[in-house]
Structure formats: C-alpha cells, structure tokens
Amino acid sequence: MNPNPAIKGRGAQLNTPNRFFQLSHEMRDDFLEFCAKEGEEADKNKTLYLEVFPKTIVNKVDSPDVGMMYSMNMYQGCEHGCIYCYARNSHEFWGYSAGLDFERRILVKKDAPKLLEELLKKKSWQAHPIVMSGNTDCYQPAEQQFKITRQCLEVFLKYKHPVAIITKNALILRDLDILKELAKDNLINVNVSITSLSEDTRRVLEPRTATIKKRLETVKILSENGIPVNVMLAPIIPSINSHEILPLAKTVSEAGALGIAHTIVRLNGAIGEIFTDWIKKTMPDRADKVLHQIESCHGGNLNDSRYGTRMRGEGEIAKQINDLVKLARLKYFKGKSMPKLNTTLHEQYKVGQLKLF
Known about the structure:
- The protein has helices at residues 29-38, 100-104, 112-120, 142-146, 148-158, 176-184, 199-205, 212-224, 245-254, 271-282, 287-296, 316-332, and strands spanning 48-51, 58-60, 70-72, 75-76, 105-108, 130-132, 163-167, 188-193, 229-236, 259-264.
- With 357 residues, the chain is α/β, with parallel strands linked by helices.
- The protein has a single domain (29-334), classed as TIM Barrel.
- α9 (245-254) links the parallel β9 and β10.
- It comes from Aquaticitalea lipolytica.
C-alpha cells in the first residue's frame, strides 16, 4: 500500500513551512505507513471556516502591472485549490502554510459589507472601480454558506458604486438579479477565469472549481443579460494549456465574452515547491519539461518579481504565447471591447439615496 496516497479533491499535496516561523510541522512517512496499516486517517482533509475581524476591507493596489487600483477580499485562503495560485503566499501572513492550509483554513470576513459601506459613505472617498477577488475568489464554496459577496453587491448597488468581479465559479449566477441592476447604470463587469477546455486538465489544476461547461454557460448567461464579461486565460502554463489559446478564445467569444486577458504562470515564494511537488506526482512523464519551460519564460527561474516582465515573461516560448494571444484577439474579438465602468453616479448616492439638492 502506498504510504503517500494522493489527497483527493485538493491541489497542493503538502504543507510547505511558513517562512515567518522558525519551527515547522512534518508528516513523516513512518507515521503515514502506521496509519495505513491500522486503517486510520492520518489527515481528515476537512475544510475549516475561521472568522476574522479586519479593520478595513478595501486595499489600494500599488503594483504598476496589475489592472486595478482597489481590491477587496471577503475570504482569505481559497477552497478551489488551484495549484498555481499566486495568492497562496499571502496565507503565510496569517500564520498558515501556502500549501494545504491555503485550501483548508478559510478565513471569513463577515463584517465586509459593513466595512465597505463605511468607506463608500466617507466624504473623502472618490469613486474608483473596486475589484472583488483581487486575491482569492469571492464565489468560492464558502460563499454558499456565508453570502458575504451578495451582501457586498447590495452595498455597491445602494451607493451606485462601480465594481468588478473575478471568479471561476458559476455561483455568481445566484446574484444575477443584483448584477442586472448594476449593469443598467454600467456599474459592473465580470472576469471569468477559464484556463482550459479539457475537464481532465481542469480537475487536476483546479480541483474544486466549477466545470468548464458551467463556466462557459456562466459567460453566456451573463452576456445575454447585458453584463459585460471578460475571460481570463490565466495563467498560461507551457505544455499544459498553452496549446489551447486559440480554441479557448474562439469558444469564449462565441459564448459572448467581449475580451480576453492572459498571464504566463510564475511560481513565486512557496508556490514553486508546491507546484513542483504536485506536477511530479500528477504528471511525472512531463514534469521536468514543464518546469524547464516555465523557467525559460522567467530568466531561468520558476519565480519572477520583475515589473513589466513577470506577467508576460520573456524568451522564445513566452513570445509564442503572447503572439498567439494577440492573434486570438484579432481573429475572434475584432470590434469587441469591455466598456469603462461608470464612476459618475456615486457622489449623488453617498447617503444611500439620490441627493435632491
């Protein structure tokens, strides 16, 4: 019997040490073997929801190559378990691992709607689009229980404030009623992440996300209801989904998407170790090839923190990927574009209703 069986339904297969801690916890092979022989569970693989109490909910984004000025996250950690997720490293700031802890220790901010409303009512606040899910998905499984994202959308609607959403979960359709109201005043756009047309690829890369079929249906339904949709082909991973750029672009355009965006995968911080461990267990036949091709896009490293190149990469493989995306835009999105969000209404609604004078 294999003393190290795959952890089902999870992306990461280990907990990397937290860089801020001197001590680390290790699951030893002899303990796992003992549990296997005794028929005991070494790891119950349960998700825990832990409430936290932040003082603010909206963050200013200073990065020059991220297309947002402000973001907010109702949850820290994400049960979707996407193996490549850049947000994993942020879980270390909360005292957890970027590996399995990121997927199984979900921090819940129940006060988010109240904090958001306090900000939007401030006389000093000037309307700028706020992106929900700048770090972790606002429609991850926890949202089914807590409904914090829906409450925040109600606040945005009340104060006629522009908001953008990034998600890979069809749960967003639950809130179609609010999204349609926001769309009437051009206060909403949605970015749906679709990284592959293959369910086999989706299951190993993003184990607890909505199926590809559900995501394409989401793009179609949102578009048919007048809600602008951009599709994130992100990240592009050489030799895993890089061959799908053109068919992906064609499919999402036909579903109603107005545009596409992409990044090339980079594995900063603990993500390099987590991804390497995962791919050697999941795709051993091409693990070295994929890792070397990722390195070739980032100056010989798996990680890349250089502004200007970290998102698009460099070298021949990165150039091929970027050229394919340009071709896809020309071929499938000619004459399409995402509308600019409306920032002109909020000042009149700062008290929650239209000012009369």
